[in-house]
Amino acid sequence: MKDLSLHLLDIAQNSMVVGSTHVRIAVEVDSQLDAVRLEVGDDGRGMDEEFLRRVADPFTTTRTTRKVGLGIPLLKQNAERTGGYLRIESAPGRGTRVEAVLRPSSIDCLPLGDIGGAAAMMICSNPHVNVEFSYVRDGRSFEVSTHDLEEALEGIPLNDASVYAPITELMRSGIAEADGLSQ
Known about the structure:
alpha+beta, Heat Shock Protein 90, 6 strands, globular
């Protein structure tokens, strides 16, 4: 993976394909703590303890189309290479929460990438899932949810091709404002 937005997209997509109806995605950048925290939580089917112990092994996957799953193992490796960590909490029938913390001062830390574009893609390609997205940088925040967007679109479906560009721009501008980059 070239950047953290792709990790976030991969983990969130995993949440969406296991029957989740609600997915929480959070990105927090804290300069004081030298930390970037990525979190994805869902109300999906969850994992039992045995599978949870093995989930960071690339040869552990629920996919039938291939025998390896690299998303979690690569995120774990990237987090640990920066001095950070990966933590996963899950229980059958209760969902899963994946949290990765990375140290941005590390030479091994991947760039954030296009977090706004990745979030827009998740929202627009999964209109049946309620997504709550938050981005915080040093106390400044941007938040949006599928419900907020559906209300603003007044009946236009989230997966309608005409709304992808405006939602992407909304996400990118909200993140830029939280980053202190907007005018």
